[in-house]
Amino acid sequence: MGGLIRRARKISIRYTVGTLFLIATTLTALVAIALQFHFGKQTSQEQLLSKLIMASAAISEYVSEMELSAVSNARILKTISMADTEKFSQREIRDLLVEVLRDNPLFYSIYYGKPNDDFYQIINLDSSPVVRQRLHAEDRERWVVINIDGSGAQRTRATRYFTDRLSLTRIVTEPSNYFPTQRPWYSTAQANKVNKTHPYLFQHFKITGQTYSIKSRNAVIGIDIVLSSVASKLSTQALGLGVRQDVETYLFNREGEILASNFNQVSPNESSLPEVQPLVLSEPQQQIVRQIKSLKVSNQTDWFPYDFANAGEPQGYTIDLLNMVAQMIGIKLEYMNGFSFEELSDQFQKGKLDVLNAVALPQGENSALSAPLVLDKPALLKAENVQGWPKTVAVVRGQQWPLMNEPSVRWIEFEDVNQAVEAFRAGRVEGFYNAYQVLKSVNLTGLEQQTQIQILDAQPEIPISLVMSPQYAELSALFNQALAQITPEQLTWLQEKWFSGHTTFSRWVPYSILREVSQQQEQYGRMLPITVADKDRYLYLVPVSDEQEYLAVLIPQHLVTEQVVAQLWKSLSMTVGVMLILLPVAWWFGTPIVNPISQLIDETHKIKRREFEDVKLVDSKIKEVSELSGAMTDMVKEIRRHEKSQEEFVEAFIQLIAGAIDDKSPYTAGHCNRVPELGMMLAKAVEESDEGCFKDFRFANAKEWREFRIAAWLHDCGKITTPEHIVDKGSKLEANYNRIHEVRTRFEVLWRDAQIEALKAQLKGTPKAQAERACKQRQQQLQEDFAFIAQANIGSEFMSDESLQRIRTIATQTWVRHFDNRLGLSPLEELHQPENMKSPPVKEKLLMDRPEHIVHRERSTHFDPKLGIKMEVPEHLYNLGEVYNLSIRAGTLTAEDRYKINEHMISGIKMLDALPFPKELSRVPRYASTHHETLKGTGYPRKLSAEELSIPERILVIADIFEALTAADRPYKKAKPLSVAVDIMYKMACDQHIDKDLFLLFLKQGVYLEYAHMFLPEKQIDKVNIEQYFQQEKVA
Q1: Based on the domain organization, do 887 and 905 belong to the same domain?
Q2: φ and ψ at residue 838, rounded to 5 degrees
Q3: Residue 615 and residue 769: Cα distance in Å, rounded?
């Protein structure tokens, strides 16, 4: 792994030069890009700030113009209406108001209402797309004139649609329950000033807006502005930022109430109500519903989360619940807002409202109280450190709560929840008393850790219900019936929506920092980095009117850098493109260095291939490269000298091993030295042959020749482990010495025993002649038996079954041992002695296979499968039994002895496999370990077939056998004449023991004769008729 890592870190000189060039240019480019980013970011901020300044100025101008126009036009219209010098017709009033609307396209409508509830209104359909949509106007229509008059059931609304040139297109007449005197703009109007309402819902068109109104002599004049027209100015497109979803824009007043926004604060689950099933009504109940066209329902300003208005839109728990009930009954609800709770209660008492929503009032004589819409606990908002009741507590005027008669508390009434909370924040009161869900939802930003909400558990839950006018008592029962049909799942949906705290919907700006910055004049018109809702933003805030209204824009900080980053990517792409164009130039810069270095690399490849003679000096103008080339050629000379000395040392060491093996035993004589010579002679003959299968055989180079030569020298290297007494075993009873002498001694004992028996017989009265004759007969038999045993011990003849039986018969003769054979033994010999041996004198057999003759194996005979050894292993290491050894049918070796000798191949394989031969000598272990294989797969140690034996391996088989047959320096056999050796080998070739083609080439090329003249004595070299073998091949 370390080598891989080191190689991975190597880089070329050309790459280095090119990389350095790229690094230098890249660093220069990065510095330039970094500077571009820095100044580009500043420029982007300045451009964005410039856009916001222009947009805020336009919005400010728009709002101011709208404010100024509305106020001035309202006053002008009042002045005109109070003039006595001229009476105006309806047409003239229409044309006058149309001209005002033409001159003031920001106005949604102009109207007036009289004390008798007559109402006249002109609407500009081009003031907002929402207006045209809500009024279902056609594209050709521009103006809408609305007249409402009459009383009771006769009260109607006539809606006339006009083109731009005031041509009437259609008239729509319908009943109306709209009464201008009940609207906020009418009730709050003053004669000496123009009054501006809070955002509220325009009743007959359900559009949210604001009204500028002023009281005239006989009427109240109003000018409407829809908030959608202001909100359009707050869009990201109007701000010059394109279409974006991550920019928030708010127009709000000093209390933090949102007047307009581009940001939809209603979460998806708040946009629709759960599906409800229509209530099954009886015929009388259906008649009640048909008689009531619609109900006017109160809508408070800020009693969140039950009943409140968001930019004039009715919202809240009870609003949703009422809408669901209205769908179930099939009745229409018209919400009225813009009034305080006290004012709404007063209008309800006067009959101007049909339903008073979300109240906690006991049922009275003049009201129909519904079943509870929801239950809530009374609670008290107070400072964290206040115990018990605070001294001053705020309440909303008109609301009645338990314990409001507490004598220790001074109750201070406020118009709405917002005023009460502001008083609490300002410290004018110490507590605020209301429903728990209301207090939990108030805006306490910055005071969370300093306040607490105490639930008054001792008090019963407060039922929040509807109050209907007495005339709708029967309808109240229908409402209660519908409320009872609301499912638990639907109630859970409402509670999750409004009470869980997940509702993102509010009439207030969502971030307290907007109100805080609005009070810091030094921060106006700046890009302030802030973090809100875990997001990094820029805040831009400016006042837009004299009415303490503010514009706030929240911009993601990444918006500032988007254009800069885009420009940077463009610059980076161009830089990369230029660098890619210059890359060949950088590549060319390395040529004067790389070319000679490449030539040096080519020379190193020659060194790697050991082609030292082909290594040349590389000429270069670069001094260091030239010196490196000279050093390389000097190194090559030294490597060549060192390699030659190493090769000589290795081959000398190999020959030393071979010589040691030959010197170890005279039975191998010079075998290890002569086989390489014969093998090389035969290999040269094969290379020179162009016949048959040998025409394509060649050693590729001198390295392969050396590989073959070393393998020939090491072919019997395993014999260094073979015990000498096994290699030298010339007789059957030999085991370090010839045990025939022990047997002969026992015969001598029997010889003496025969003489003793004869003397004992004479003492018992047997005639001397008879006793001597019996003694001579016994001794003669002993002589013959010993001669037979001695001849069998030599192993020169094949042992027949009769001979083996005679050995067993002779072995049964007994003699008496008088001496303890356990004395004088080595510790190892003592371990082999049986424990139950009898003490002398002991009668023993003449020849025995004793237990101690068995030598067990101490090492495993399991061979590594990769070595491919397939030799049968005898059970015992040695068996020295006398009868067992004398019973060998041919030769002098037992199966154990034969395996021990053949084991030299296994030892050789293991020795050679353990040596780290270089690549050019990788086949040495294979060549050196296959010279005992046969073509028919009966050889050892691997039992290879002809297909698995290469030509070099077959050459060593022939060389090994021929040398063994002709060797004249082995004491255990006579050297065979040349002709006999050749004839034996031919028979072996016919038996597929050796390669016949190779053997015939061995004869044809005269290799056998050349070898004989070099290593055999003259008397051994007889005439060999090799033609007979070729003739036999032709016949075959």
Answers
A1: no
A2: -80, 150
A3: 101
